[in-house]
Amino acid sequence: MRPGISLIKGLSVRKKIIILFLSLSLITLLITGLVAFVTISDIGNYAEQSSSALGVAAVNDSTVALQQAAESNLMRLATDQAEITQLSFDDTASELEILAAQAVSLQNNPPFLPIIPSFTRNSPPNDPFRGTVVLLAPGSTATSQSDEYRTLAGMDDLLMAMYRADTELTGIYVATDSGIMRTYPWNGKTEPDYDPRVRDWFIRAKNASGPVWSEPYVDAAGHGLIVTCSRSVPTKYGTWVIATDVTTDTINQNILGLTLDGSGYAVLMDSGGNVISRPGLSAGNTTWNEAFATDNVFESTNPQLVETGRKMVAGMSGIDHVRIDNSEIYIAYAPVKTLNWSFALSMPASHIVAPVKTTESKIIESTRISGEHIDAQTTRILQLFAGLIFILVIIIILLSVLLARIIAQPVELLRQGTVALGKGDLDFHLTIETGDEFEMLAHSFNTMAADLKQNIETLRRTTAEKERYAKEMEIAKEIQNNFLPEFIPEIPGIELAAATLPAMEIGGDLYDFIPVTGDRWGLAIADVSGKGVSAALFMALCSTIIRVSSGAEADPSVVLKHANQLIYADGRSSMFITLFYGVFDPAKRTFTYVNAGHNPPMIVRGDPPNVGTIEEGRCIALGVVADVSVTSAERVLEPGDLIVMYTDGVTEAFNLQDQEFGEDRLVTYLQKHRNYPVQEIINGLIDEIRRFCGSAPQSDDITLVIVRVL
After folding, report:
1. CA distance 404 to 19
2. Cα–chain-centroid distance for residue 500?
3. How would DSSP label each residue in 182-245?
């Protein structure tokens, strides 16, 4: 072994830390100081020279570059904004194509009952966004009982969906040759003598093969100045016209709201030279049944402006210099191709040239100031850096000594502790009060010794506790199963099956089949809030209450009110239950039901099968408030009808990608298997959910009750 290495090896930990830390710190400071001194000097010289050179070059180039860039930038902005305008209007036209496809689809399908209701002009809903308004034009022979009237109602849900998807729309509506008009959202400002069939947007759409845009006009529904995109749809009832409105204010804000330092001016013009939209354009005192006088570029007395307008309506793009009121104006224009419109953006020439002189003087003054500042800062930095290095050397020496002392002493105490622990002294206590990781390590050491003594006893108790818990859960699961029907009853007129699959050992879902007075049967499915033991106990209570409340009462709404009072009275658990309860009358083949906050059951009917939801008779969950208000709903069932009642564990089953099973997959499965025996449908659906979830854990209880009418 070499003498140098042998000397270091013989030193204590404290001395090794002092030597190593001090050596590394001093070497680092010396190298850093030398490099910084050279680098700062070079940077200062280079920055001063570069600043002077850049100042001279900037003064020479700024004038020419600014003028050239202004025209290029203005043209680019006009072209970009024309494309943005085109995309915005094309999106609206595309949305109408979707509605048109829906209108065509309705012709070959039975009338579809929309989710949102419709109202007349004089019967407003509580929320205008929760309903459509239906108008009948003067002289219309259409009635609410006509086939076209009912078929047209199938457009309501898509009108609402399209309106909510596009926030720029003021309203969306469909009108017919027979004088029917349905509009979303509801608006009661339209006059009784309003007839959509004589409006320009209706007539132009009938004469066109695709979407068309109107000129600005005053809206009859009180939205001010608007433009309308309309699209005709030939139907077996005659022509339908689907249309949507966009206010000129919206166009100004979202499409034409482009200004350059407050000096830009944007205009949208159609193929006839009419101004579609510009800042400040408004309806004034014009009413809806009066023609709105639009601005037209060809009516201008300025020949240069008229010439620019001819280029724009010809679909050209470019930039013109036009003199208006003794001021030179740059006008950049570009076509909005699919609409055969044109977009223009103007800027005063004075706005472009004025900054040149100001920029020149600022650059010269800034160059001089920068040079002086760089010299002063370079000298100051060098002085500060030299003083800082000296101070750091002193601090490093002191810290090296202190650090070695702080580290070495706790290490020695820890060494003594490990020796004692190695000899089997589990009562050895280590005391280190440094307030840092060494103290935490000493505490961990003491804790480890104490834990070792308790380990065997703790392991024994834990094993016994787990066995006891497992046995109790088996008993709880057996008790819970006793609250569910022991067998599926044979009910005349229906085929019935049910299944439940708890997410944990025990769950909070329940179903029941309850004989009701008059040879009727009550069918119930419910979901208690929460999971596990608390949910299972609350489920048992609710199951008993529901069975007691419904045994002698045939009206589901009375059963629900009575059950809610009993559940709410026992409100110590602060839990609630969602419940769907219906009474089947085999003699009349009717199904009377209520829904207390539960997932609406699905009903499969027809061939090919059509899947809908049972939405009527709804109220809030039981146990939330002392009294609930609900009215029973009734359906007359038909042979072959399939009613599927389920809890949210079916549609909200998640796979490893955090995707839920969802209603769409449930609908697809029911359409494909609707003719299978109901028990096979349930078994197959549970297998389908398991395949979808894969190895992901079951997130909620799954319960199904399926009824087929024979």
Report:
1. 10
2. 33
3. EEES----S-TT--GGGSHHHHHHHT-SS-EEPPPEE-TTS--EEEEEEEEEEETTEEEEEEEE
As a whole number of angstroms, the distance between CA 199 and CA 37 comes to: 82
Among 316, 260, 225, 248, residue whose Cα is nearest residue 70 = 260
- Cα–Cα distance between 651 and 527 in angstroms, integer? 14
The b-or-e profile of 316-347 (16+ CB within 10 A means b, else e) is ebebbebeeeeeebbbbbbbbeebebbbbbbb
Q: Break the chain into its structural domains and give their ranges.
A: 92-247, 426-466, 489-709
Q: Kindly report whether the peptide bond that precedes residue 185 is cis, defined as omega within 30 degrees of 0.
A: yes
Residue tagged 């579609």 (tokens)? 276
Q: Evaluate whether 187 touches 171 at the Cβ level (below 8 Å).
A: yes
Q: Options 3.60.40.10, 1.10.10.10, 3.40.50.150, 1.10.240.10; which CATH number does 489-709 get?
A: 3.60.40.10
Write out pLDDT tens, residues 389-435.
778 778 877 777 777 677 767 777 777 777 777 777 777 777 887 77
SS3 515: strand
Helix (H) or strand (E) holding 275: strand 275-277
Using alpha carbons, list the distances in angstroms from residue 577 to 31, 551, 562, 600, 655: 75, 19, 14, 15, 26
Task: Give this prediction's pTM.
Answer: 0.43
Residue position matching structure tokens 């309308």: 228
Question: How does pLDDT run across 484-520, given as a tens digit for each residue?
Answer: 898 899 999 999 999 999 888 777 899 999 999 888 9
Distance between CA 496 and CA 490 in Å, rounded?
A: 8
CA distances from 202 to 24, 214, 217, 379 (A): 86, 10, 13, 80
The CATH number of the structural domain formed by 92-247 is: 3.30.450.20
Distance (Å, whole) CA 641 – CA 609: 10
For 564, the token pair is 């809610």
